[in-house]
Structures are given as structure tokens and as C-alpha cells.
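User: Before I run my own analysis I want an independent prediction to cross-check against. Here's the chain; please return only the C-alpha cells and, at the end, one sentence I can use as a sanity check.
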Amino acid sequence: MPKLLKLLLATILCINLSACSTIKGFWGDDDDDKDEISDDISARQLYDKARGEMFGNRSLDAVTSYALLESRYPFGVYAQQAQLDLAYLYYNQMDMDIAVDMADRFIRLNPEHENVAYAHYIKGLALFNKSKSIFNAIIPRNPSDKDPKPLLAAFEVFNTLINRFPDSDYAFDAQQRMIFLRNELAEHEVTVADFYMRRGAYLAAANRAQYVMQKYQGAPIMPQAVYILELAYRQLKIDDLADDTSKVYAANFVLPDGSIKDPSITASKVSCATTAWSRLLERLNLKTYYCN
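Assistant: C-alpha cells:
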């Protein structure tokens, strides 16, 4: 269980039981010097305290203060903002599951809040980064090895954000991330389709390729999906559909000199990183440089 979640649960338990006003020694350190939080501290003061702790890299103290704030002033504007701050705090601490839960909680309790777009954005970011780890930066994984569920969930969250809040500050970044997710998901499906082709499961391969063509138009790997679909139809002896698919390929994926692109080469992701530093950031999955 993540440390921040343990502290949050312990804090709530202490508050509900009225057994303590601060958490001491929870992590094995006797922090007896810290002053207890006064019973008459205002919501604003408690919120400012928690926010200062969060941005002062005192995450555990911030969780304690935010939990106390929500306990003492559950219906105020500061309690609402505390929910958003906790979602960001857990995201920043790489506790993606809890960040998603916190964002969901805010959306559920405050569907018309002026900052609900931000809650959707944080939820999408947490899902977007959920399948990443430090090992991916060292040994990049093939998209087919990834569980597509978090990527699909992030795609849907960003799509909701764009549709509901097209003029928000987060819509543009959400759109760019959807492009990346579309490409990742399409590559996953095509790799699975290729797997089926190699094992003679031609109908399953055709279904996967069709799904890519229907759902992920514009993905760089689209030529490979169309080619796999044609090959699957040939193997299934559905020559009329194979011929139609071949025409689709010829009409859409032709080089300037009139020759057809080599369909045996999987399209690579397009990056517009121009410097060594930007390419390093992309390799570490810290930033993506999208092409116009």
C-alpha cells in the first residue's frame, strides 16, 4: 500500500475516533517537536497550511492537513479544493490509482464545479502514465506488451474533457495526448493482428485490422493494418474483399513517384524532437514533441 494512502487512512481513523489530533510516530520517527493543530484554526488557515506543505515537499504532512480540513469543514470551498489538491498530490507522487480515485471523487461530488475540467485532466494524466515505469525509460516496451485498458481509459477521459470543456485550458494538451494514445492503441492492435496471422488465425487477424481502420484513422501504422486485412482475406479465400482492400491501400498509401509503400515495414511513430535534449526527454517518456 502506498505510503500516502497509509497515512491518509490512519489520519481519517484518528479523526473519527477522536483519539488524536496529530499523527506521531506513524513512520517510526518521534516527531514530538511539532505543534498540534489548534482546534480553532480556520478553514482558510488549515488549507494554506496544507498547500504550503504540499509545495514544500512535505507530502505526508500535507495529506494529514488536507484530511483534517475535510473532516472539520466538509462542506466548504476549501474542502472542495482540498480534494483537487490531493488528486494532484497523489499524481505528483506517482500514486496513479489513488490520483484517479481522488479525481473521480471530486467529479462525482462536484459535477458542476468551475474546476471540474481540471479533475478530468488529472484523471486522464494519471491513467496516461499508469502503465509507465522507470524500466520503460531504460528498456522501452513494445506497445503490444502493454495492457491497453489504462490507455483506452485515458483516451475516453480526454475525449470527455474535450467534448464537455472544449475551451478549457486543458483541451489542447488533452487532444495532443489523444493523438499519442491513438497511435499506441493502433500499434497494439496491429501487433496482435500480426500475431494472429503468424499462427493462422486469419479471421481474428482480419477483425483486429478492421477495428484499427474503424477506430484509429490517421494512425501512422494504418498501412500495415490495411495490408494485414488484405492478406487475411486472401487466406480466407474471400478474394473480392481482398481485391477491394488492395485498392484501398493503393488509393491511400502511394509514394510521390507512384510506387506503393512497402507494406512489410511497420510505420514508425512520428516525432518532431529536433535536439539531443528533446530526444532524450522523449526516450525517458517525460515529454512528447508532436508534429503539426
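Sanity check: Residues 9-35, 263-270 have pLDDT under 50 and may be disordered.
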